[in-house]
Structures are given as C-alpha cells and as structure tokens.
Amino acid sequence: MKRLIITSVTRDWPFVILFFIGILLILLLATKPVIADTLTEEPGPVDPELQRERGAYLARAGNCMGCHTAKGSPPFAGGRRLSTSFGIFVTPNITPDKRTGIGDWDEDDFWQALHEGKSRDGRLLYPAFPYTEYTKVTRQDADAIFAYLRSLQPISQLNPPSDIHFPYDFRPLLYIWRALYFKEGVYEPDRSKDEEWNRGAYLVQGLGHCNACHTSRNLLGASRDETLTGGQIMGANWYAPSLTSRLEAGSHDWSIEEIAELLATGISKSAVLSGPMGTVTRQSLQYLSQQDIRAMAVYLKSLAKNETSGMSTINTQIAPEDLRMYLQKGGKLYERHCQDCHGASGEGVANIYPALAGNRNVTMSSPLNTIRIVLNGGYPPATTGNPRPYGMPPFQQIFRDGEIAQIVSYIRNAWGNRGSLVTPIDVDRSKGDSH
Ligand code: HEC
Ligand code: HEC
Ligand code: HEC
Question: Where is heme c 2 annotated to bind (predicted)?
Fold first, then answer.
C-alpha cells in the first residue's frame, strides 16, 4: 500500500511541479508591464494594390495556404488535419468571413497572432502554427499578408476543433512552453554580412519556416537549440536532413546556382526533392523570385560546415558471414528492378533519374527516406522549371521487407557508397503515415 502511494507520487511529481511553475508563470506574466514594441517601423503611405500583391507573394513564401487548406475545400478556409505526437491539429479558417474566419480581425490582431502566437482573444496558440519562426517577419510584411488575406473571398466554413491529447489540451501549459522555448522578435540583420545573405536568412528563418522540419524536437515538441541540424518530422515518417552537415544536405559542395535550381524546380543534376520537401517546392518555393531563391541559396551555402567525421559505420546486428550474401542478393535485385533508371553504376541520368552513387540522401545515417521512397515510390514536384517530372514506381507490393532491406543495404554500400546496413525491422518501422 505504502509502496503504491510512493510510486504514484514519484510518477506524478513532474506534473505537480509543472503545474505550480505554470501558476507562478501565469501570475508573473500577467503582472509584467507591457514593454512597448521597439520596432516601430515607419511604413509611410502604402499603395493598397501593391501591398496586396506583395502580401500574396509573402503568403506564398510562408506557404500559409498549404496548411490552411483541406483537400477539396476552398483555399485558406482551414480544416486541414495535422497529426502530431500531441494529437491532431485542425487548421482554422483564415478567410475574411466574420463568423467562421478572421473577418473581425484588424492589423494588430493579426500581428499578435503571427508575431506573438496569440489569437485575437488572447488565447495562446499551439506552435503547430509555426509562429516560432514567423515571429521574425517584419511588421510591414505582416501587414501586407493581412491586406492580402482581407482581399480574399470570405468563406463560411466552420472547422471541427483540434483533437489534442491530455495534458497538452490544457492551453495554459503553453505559458511554460513559451517561457522555455519561444523567443519573440523580428529578424535582426547581421551587419557583418551583405544584403543578399541577410535577405536569405530572413526568408529561411522566418516565412520559409525551414526549421519547423529541419530540426530535432524534444518531448515537448520544441526544437533543440541548434537550428537546421536535421531531425525526424513530427507526425510524419520522414527525416528532414541537416542543412549544415556535409554528410546530409549541407550545401558545402554545391554551387549557389545548383542549390537555387534545386529549391526552385525540385531537381538538379545531383539531387531531387521528394515527399514533404517536394511539397514545399510545389506549393511555395517555385513561386519565389529568382533573387529571393538565390538569396536563400547564398545563406544555406554559408551554413554548411566542412566536417568529415561521423561517417556511418557498418551495422553490427548482422553477422559478417551474412553480410556478403546480404549485399549480393541486394545487388541482384537492383540489377533487375532499378538499374534501367538509376544506371549500372548508380550514375542516374542528370535532371531525370537521381544518381544513387555518391548521393547523400542514400548514405546518410538515417535510412528512413530511402526506405520510404523504395516502398512508396514517388514523383519530384511538378514545377514550371520541371513541369513533367519522371516518377519512381512503388515496390511495397513486389518485395518483402527482407528484400527491401537487402536492396537498400546494397545501394548504401555499392559504388563507393558507405552506409550502415538496413534490417527488415528498419523497413517495418518506416511504414505508416505517409504524410
Ligand atoms: C505548418 C502548418 C501551418 C502553416 C504553414 C501556417 N499555419 Fe496558421 N495555423 C496553423 C495551426 C495548426 C493553427 C491553430 C493553432 C492553435 O489552434 O493553437 C494556426 C493558426 C493561425 C492563426 C490564428 C487563427 C485564430 O483563429 O486564432 C492565424 C491568423 C494563422 N494561423 C495565419 C497563418 C498565416 C498568415 C500563415 C502563413 C504566413 C500561416 N498561418 C501558416 C498551422 C499553420
Ligand atoms: C514540411 C517539412 C519541411 C519543410 C518546411 C522544409 N523542408 Fe527541406 N526537407 C524536408 C524533407 C523531409 C527532406 C528530405 C527529402 C528530400 O531530400 O527531398 C528535405 C530536404 C531538403 C534539402 C535536401 C535536398 C536533397 O535532396 O539533398 C534541402 C536543401 C532542403 N530540404 C531545404 C529546405 C529549405 C531551404 C526549407 C525552407 C524554405 C525547407 N527545406 C523546408 C522537409 C521540409
Ligand atoms: C522508372 C524509373 C525508376 C525505377 C525503375 C526506379 N527508380 Fe528510383 N527514382 C526514380 C525517380 C524519378 C526518382 C525521384 C523520385 C522523387 O523525387 O520522388 C527516384 C528516386 C529514388 C531514390 C531517392 C534519391 C534521392 O536523391 O532522394 C532512391 C533511393 C531510389 N530511387 C532507389 C531506387 C531503387 C532501389 C530502385 C529499385 C528497387 C529504384 N529506385 C527504381 C526512378 C526510378
């Protein structure tokens, strides 16, 4: 009996403590004097037509439509379900409908949402809405986005509420979360860098919200301190590679032109975008101006570190005597099913079929994306720069998990590639939620 009580108390103590910290913080924040916004930009007179156009462009850069549109529903009317480990978030209607959308909002309300993560009534918003990155957007740009949203056709669409698990459904817990992880503030230019670099950083860190995927998250869904260092996307079975590491998607060895081409068209001579990243380019990046894409490429290239350590090592779960057979079988399957497109030496065809030899997506330590693409196939995004992409067939119906494991292990270790071996368990784990 006594032991029971003790165990239940020890199990619950983090919640008890969190609860009290929460109350303290609420009191603290409620009494904190309001600090005047130091960023009082003087926008001057604005031409409403130009402002709306600019807003439409910026909304593309932020891909607001991507999340705020459900399949088969009008754009921006919300209702899209985003599944995360905290539950399912349903995006709100952000058309100017008075009853179901944001028709009653003014510029200040909108700024409060985008910059501070608070709804019009002061309700704290969940960071499934990436205001943790949008906070970097300037007031001028926020006003332009709002002017554009105001110009949309109001759509009366009441969306179902989000279905968030206990205890995360208790919104005031967000006070704690925000105190720990949310840093409010407009992007501050780095004066030691030129204008193009700063424009790129502003877009990547702010509206582009690249860090919403390209970072690892802790149990509270907060990104770890380091930005763009790669991580599994919450709620989607995809790995968004590090944009700083040379071993993953750091663009150290790519020219600015190639990075820009890849971001804008979804394909380049040595890489191709797939899955959720293909969607980012299809819905957002392909619409950005050449200057903005180039600026992002300049910034991304500057992030890439030139490290060489940390190469994957051979998986020890497989006995060495099995290893040769494993790779031999994988090689045979490759010859029959993959070689026609990807080439006998994994050389691919530039801008059509990605090379697998020397491809970091294939060799990086997480085999998740490679397994997924072999299971499900896919298309690079259709863009103006690559309107009719060639696709890859799915192999899930053709192969057993063991065979997929052999093929993936083979391409990770053929033609000078070096990656850990993949097991049937890895393959099984990669199934599910295709996002
Ligand atoms: C990754 C998905 C995602 C993207 C991208 C996104 N949103 Fe949202 N947004 C959400 C979710 C989810 C919520 C609801 C959060 C909550 O319930 O706390 C939300 C809430 C909002 C709200 C608050 C609405 C209300 O009634 O309180 C506004 C305003 C908004 N988003 C505008 C935008 C704009 C403008 C953009 C583009 C710059 C954008 N969103 C991009 C997911 C997204
Ligand atoms: C919705 C999640 C998501 C967002 C947002 C996102 N990415 Fe990605 N990104 C991914 C995933 C998943 C991959 C791995 C698949 C692939 O390589 O195409 C990836 C891959 C990449 C790659 C490597 C491509 C390759 O084949 O080597 C680059 C570069 C990249 N992203 C840049 C960006 C930039 C810049 C942004 C912000 C504008 C961004 N990503 C936003 C999910 C995302
Ligand atoms: C009909 C041509 C075709 C065949 C056959 C084919 N692929 Fe592909 N493969 C493609 C295309 C096109 C893409 C780009 C898909 C995308 O971006 O979604 C691709 C992408 C890939 C990628 C991801 C590369 C990257 O940079 O992200 C891997 C890994 C891959 N294929 C492996 C295989 C393996 C293994 C087989 C055989 C089991 C195979 N492919 C068979 C055309 C093919």
Answer: 210, 213-214
402 Cα distance to chain centroid? 30
Tokens of 238: 């995809």
Going from N- to C-terminal start, the domains of the chain cover 48-181, 195-303, 320-429
pLDDT digits (tens, 9 = 90+) for 65-80: 999 999 999 999 999 9
pTM for the whole structure:
0.89
Reported CATH class of domain 320-429: mainly alpha
- Asked if 195-303 and 320-429 have one fold, the answer is yes
Q: Which protein residue has the closest C-alpha to ligand 3 atom 32?
A: 374
pLDDT digits (tens, 9 = 90+) for 350-379: 999 999 999 999 999 999 999 999 999 999
Per DSSP, the three-state class of 221 is coil
State whether the beta carbon of 380 lies less than 6 angstroms from ligand 3: yes
What is the pLDDT, as a whole number, of residue 37?
39
What residue's CA is closest to ligand 2, atom 13?
Answer: 240
Cβ count within 10 A of residue 385:
16
Write the class of the CATH domain 195-303.
Answer: mainly alpha
Helices (H), 40-172: 48-62, 64-67, 107-116, 131-134, 139-150
- pLDDT of residue 44 exceeding 50, the answer is yes
φ/ψ of residue 356, rounded to 5 = -100, -25
Atom number of ligand 2 nearest to Cα 239: 12
Mean pLDDT of the chain: 88
Whether ligand 2 lies within 6 angstroms of the CB of 241 is answered as yes
